[in-house]
Design brief:
alpha/beta; Dihydrofolate Reductase, subunit A; eight-stranded mixed sheet; two-stranded antiparallel ribbon; binds NADP nicotinamide-adenine-dinucleotide phosphate; NADP; EC 1.5.1.3; NADP+ binding; DHFR-like_dom_sf; dihydrofolate reductase activity
Length: 174
């Protein structure tokens, strides 16, 4: 099963200058708890921004750069290679549904990679951040209400550590 996880502003903003737009420990906790023990896949820019493989998760990086190579990472150069890797290793679920359907593979960004996967995903975990950022330069694709329906939703009110109100929403395909 392919899931997408992201935190997005009111205009679908997700980043600026290859960084996040906010520091939200409540969302980091949600991200950690949701993805731990699973496979995470990300674009090379997001990997660069995080700066290290995420612990307790299988890390797959998408890049077109064939010279990009880091020991503890699995690297793929196209969607086809990504799918082949999942099939071959059988740890994840392939896009065509041939590998273990019980394993959840999380697409964790950024903008280019969300765009690449949104039509293939089965589920979206979206943290809606109640704020706008006019200087954002990276955006999540439009969540089409004809395709996606809210399955679960939980609100989190801003506090000392989290500057904005949040809503953790799970969307499933209609
Ligand atoms: N708010 C959130 O939840 C969230 C989550 C993640 C990231 N972000 C933000 O998103 C921004 C980064 O997004 P981005 O769009 O610039 O970068 P990105 O999606 O993280 O990575 C883009 C890179 O992925 C590789 N790529 C793209 N298409 C590919 C394909 N078809 N096959 C193989 N590789 C492919 C390319 O790497 P090469 O150039 O090496 O070929 C490309 O430069 C940052 O600001 C980050 O902080 C936000």
């Amino acid at each position: 099963m392919i899931s997408i996880i992201s935190a997005i502003g009111k205009n679908n903003e997700i980043g600026k200058k290859n960084e996040l737009l906010w520091n939200l420990p409540a969302d980091m906790k949600h991200f950690r708890e949701t993805t731990s023990g699973h496979t995470v896949a990300m674009g090379q820019k997001t990997f660069e921004s995080i700066g290290r493989p995420l612990p307790k998760r299988r890390n797959i990086i998408l890049t077109k750069d064939i010279s990009f190579n880091i020991k503890e990472l699995e690297i793929v150069h196209s969607l086809e290679e990504f799918d082949d890797l999942l099939k071959k290793t059988s740890l994840g679920h392939s896009l065509t549904g041939e590998a273990r359907p019980d394993e959840e593979v999380f697409i964790i960004g950024g903008a280019q990679i969300y765009k690449l996967f949104i039509e293939k995903a089965d589920k979206l975990y979206i943290t809606h951040v109640d704020a706008e950022f006019s200087d954002a330069d990276a955006f999540f694709p439009v969540i089409d209400e004809k395709i996606w329906q809210k399955n679960k939703s939980e609100k989190y009110s801003k506090d000392i550590l989290n500057k904005y109100d949040l809503e953790f929403v799970e969307y499933i395909k209609k």
